[in-house]
Amino acid sequence: MKKTAVEFSVGLFVLIGLICVGYLTIKLGKKELVGDRYYRLTACFTSISGLKPGAMVEMAGVQIGKVETIQLDQKNYQAVVTLKVEKTVPIFGDSIASVKTSGLIGDKYVSISPGGVDERLADGGTIPETESAIDLEKILSQYAFGKV
After folding, report:
1. In terms of residue numbers, what domain contains 90?
2. In whole angstroms, how far apart are CA 89 and each of 1, 37, 60, 85, 122?
3. Is residue 31 very low, low, confident or very high in pLDDT (cuts 50, 70, 90)?
């Protein structure tokens, strides 16, 4: 009788441990178990210079999502950036996506300037207006050699 109770409590403890490990794996992997609270948008840039997957997506200084993937469009030779935006934040058809730098030499992020049109972009939509990253090294070299 006592041996059965000990085996049962050990088994229960192991089961709870496995459930906790599974939960942490999903949370630390930043995956959603039930549903997804994001929708995806794409934006094409001529230069993203330094932007990486996982970078923040901001609107009015508030983080509203992350950069999911970055690919090269072989036809137009542009960077196609896929953004994960929270479903609670509407992005409208005339919004502008810009690649910005936090600080002087900080990380790159995507800033979205809101539009005024009532047409909300749906999941899988494309932000038509973009502003590429400013290449600080190029500007400094032009200034140093007197080409500005």
Report:
1. 38-141
2. 59, 11, 12, 7, 12
3. low
